[in-house]
Amino acid sequence: MRTSLTLLLGGLALLAALPALLSAGLLNAAVQMLIAALFASAYSLLAGRAGMLSFGHAAYFGVGAFATVHGMNAINGTGLLPTPLMPLVGAAAGLVLGIVAGWFATQRSGTAFAMITLAIAELLHALAPQLKGLFGGESGISSMRMPAWGLNFGSTTQVYYLTLAWVLLSLALLHFHTRTPAGRLTLGLRENSHRLRFLGYDVHRLGVSAFAISGLFSGVAGALQVVANESANYVVFDAGVSAGVVLNSYIGGVSVFLGPALGAALMSFFGYAVSDATQAWLLYQGVLFVLVMMFMPQGLVGLGGAAARGVSKLGAARAVPLLLLWLVAVLLLAAGTVFLVELLQRLCSQDYRALARAAATWPPVTMFGRSWTATGLATWAWPVVLLASGGALLAFARRALK
Amino acid sequence: MNAPILELRGLRKSFGETEIIRGVDLALDAGERRALIGPNGAGKSTLFHLISGNLAPTEGSIAFDGRDITGWAPQRINRLGLARSFQITNIFPKLTVFENIRLAVLRQQPQPTAFWRRVDRLPGLREATDQLLERVRLHPRAATLAGELSYSEQRSLEIAMTLASDPRLILLDEPMAGMSAEETDYTLALIREVTAGRALLIVEHDMDVVFSLADRISVLVYGQVIATGTPDEIRRHQGVREAYLGEEVAA
Question: Torsions phi, psi of B25, nearest 5?
Answer without folding.
Answer: -115, 130
